[in-house]
Amino acid sequence: MLVTPIHYDLSFEPIFSNFTFEGKEAIDVRIAKPTNTITLHAAELKIKKCLIVSSGKSISAQTKLDEKKETLTIKLPTKIAKSAKIHIEYTGVLNDRLVGFYRSQYKDKSGKTKYIATTQFEAADARRAFPCWDEPAAKAAYDISIITEPHHTAISNTNQILKKKIGKKTLYKFAKTPIMSTYLVYLGVGEFEYLTTKSGKITMRIVTTKGNSKKGKFALDLCKKLVKSYEDYFGIKYPLPKLDLIAVPDFASGAMENWGAITFRETILLFDEKTSSTQTKQFIAEVVSHELAHQWFGNLVTMKWWNDLWLNESFATFMATKFVDKFYPEWKLWDQFLEDTMNTAMGLDALHSSHPIDVKVNSPSEIREIFDAISYDKGGCVLKMLESFVTEKNFRAGLRVYLKKFSYKNAEGNDLWDEIGKSSKMPVRSMVNSWLKQTGFPLVEAKKQDSKLVLSQKRFVLEQKGSQKGLWEIPLTITHDGKAINKILKKKQESLIIPSNEILVNPGRNGFYRVKYSQDILYDLKELILQKSISHIDRWAIQNDLFALCVSGDGKARDYLEIATSYENEDDYLTQSNVSGNLYALYHRTIEEQYNPEIKQITHQYFRKMFDKLGWDAQKDEPHTNALLRSYVIGALGKLDDEEILCEANSRFRQYLQNPSSLNPDIQDAVFSLVAWSGDHNTYQKLLHLYNKAESQEQKTRFLGALSSFKDPKLLLKTLDFSQSKNVRSQNMHIPIIRVSGNQYGKKILWPWLKKNWKGLRIKVGVGSPLLNRMVSSISAVADNSMQGEIKQFFQKNPTPGTEMTLSQTLERIRIHHQFIKRLRAEFA
Ligand code: BES
Ligand code: ZN
């Protein structure tokens, strides 16, 4: 860059009466070569004044905004050199699209509408708040001031150093920030309430709207413990004197790691002992941990460019689990990681339309679209695989050097691999790059030939078309008779001499690949599953891979059902939830098929067995995972039309209406949904009323889900229309859409409704919102093969930037489903 920023002096004054703000900035820049034009980023701003001071002279400058490129060009009459200070005065919009500097609305206790102003700058929206070099590598320091109305307070990244009355308003000044990227700057203004604590020298606060700060206790206590733990692990102190966790009523994603001022959706920060579920508690912990990991990995050391976004996100994903697990080992988060992270990643990465982790991106819409299961989940799995390959100790040693070396700077993936390579003295760079630079992941086939074990690799895809490219450096572990062999499989095929029978590939599932065993090996493994003489993770993995092979056409559903019988006496959380999930998927996918009753019966039986162990009510001191499993099992049984469950759900609902605290929050979701499932128009009115009067957002989303669980398509349409009303926040609009897509009775109505409403929907959530991708994905659950052309055409006529890749993934999923059904029909005929 010709001109680079060193320091920003920023002052903001939000004007709530017309949802605008006044901005004033002074940027110190360094100039590499004499120039008379300076170009920086700006969007939706009106420039009032621009003045440049260089070599003691003050020059007034011409400015030109390019709305399309989102740039501001400053033209000067003469060239300037070395350094300058750019002074700009401008106005901007406090928009309602949840990006840039935006407004969020809520009602106070007396029902009065209130606003807060808050920011979301990642990936490329700081330019909507102040002209800047809006790229992660253009790091600078910031001095920020905010002018507010007297009843408001202001928050930014650092601690407040001045509060002063000026006229009727209040001026807040904040301490100079460390050198950092624009996407991490934060501004917040509103009638906030705080829950405060101290941890060593750091002041930690939960920030909420009035009346809610008490619900921040769980997050605040955990935050304190996690920060200490991260400081120890990284060997670097948290560098700011304060850390705020802020609950924002309207928030596009889940949470955002602004340095020292982390923002969250309310449902991901606020925990209410009386009404919140165990699932919510766990989620809060994981997300707090994730955003705290970013304070080092991302904020202190930042990627050079967004192609390495995955490094930020996958690292935080991996660390989030690692650190919450230290405090809550009984939550079994590493088991859950296999299901939520590894399976999610493999589901996407088994598509031809997936993408490499390390991917070229340029425009803001391209950048937004890679915040997906590849960047978060596959990346997280690759890091976990790397850690187990080089050992925890070497991984951490390399990481520490990397963080020290690049503090307050930018880095690339290779910088990290090289440090971990040095600490472990292992070929890390080439191993890792084989997982980063190519799309997909391998299927390892294991076959016995005499006393040899033949291992081969090929790309695992769900849609079969021709032979697949791809060769990975796979860190393999094989156990036989309990002994472990480690090696790197680099070739297409290799054989090992293994005399014994009980062979297990990828034990513990540290490697990001699936395994296909030959029949004889599988035969032995079945016995081990029944006896439970292999670990729960290995029991889980064997059938998990077999099910994936069914979907890809490399295995038979009947064989899967057969092996599922070996899992009837499972008591492990992970295994039970996966087996039941696979059975349910099989049932749900074949609902319109003749042979469905047979599958339904098997599925029902499996869930019933699980339920018999769990029951309706939490047992004293039961495992955490029981609470997670219970609502899922009850919900599924009801949808499998289990009369007893439906009856009890309705009876518990009647009790709930009398006395809300009679219903455990962990089963509320399931109960409300089943009441809808078996309910009519009157039930609808009741649930709608409950939605409208629900006080917390967590409660509201439960009822919104229930409103999407009716059988009557007319009621489902009503819910979809309701999702467009002012009663549903734009951040939650995707909930009914996704829930209706998963409801078999919504199959016919969703796509026509989406088509009719797409224009309005796009405006409501804002083009570029990640929620649009979720809605596009939902189409794969309701469309059949014959609709592909129509869907493609629709999006050609209604282009939705940032969803292009998601659309091809959705179409591919439709084809995969179609092929799967075709094979099932042949099998079950
Ligand atoms: N940096 C992201 C937030 C973000 C997401 C910004 C997408 C811009 C676009 C943050 O660290 C994050 O990953 N948030 C997650 C939370 C997750 C851990 C559940 C999110 O918002 O989904
Ligand atoms: Zn993140």
From TrEMBL:
Aminopeptidase N-like N-terminal domain segment(s): 5-184
GO cellular component, one term: membrane
Superkingdom of origin organism: Archaea
Keywords: Aminopeptidase, Hydrolase, Metal-binding, Metalloprotease, Protease, Zinc
Active site: E291
CDD domains associated with the record: M1_APN-Q_like
E.C. numbers: 3.4.11.-
Every Peptidase M1 membrane alanine aminopeptidase domain range: 218-435
Cofactor info, note text: Binds 1 zinc ion per subunit.
Binding residues annotated for Zn(2+), in chain numbering: H290, H294, E313
Top EC category: hydrolase
Chain ranges of the ERAP1-like C-terminal domain: 503-815
Annotated positions for site Transition state stabilizer: Y376
GO molecular function annotation: metalloaminopeptidase activity; peptide binding; zinc ion binding
GO BP: any one term: proteolysis
PANTHER family for this protein: PROTEASE M1 ZINC METALLOPROTEASE, PUROMYCIN-SENSITIVE AMINOPEPTIDASE-RELATED
Family: Belongs to the peptidase M1 family.
Protein name: Aminopeptidase
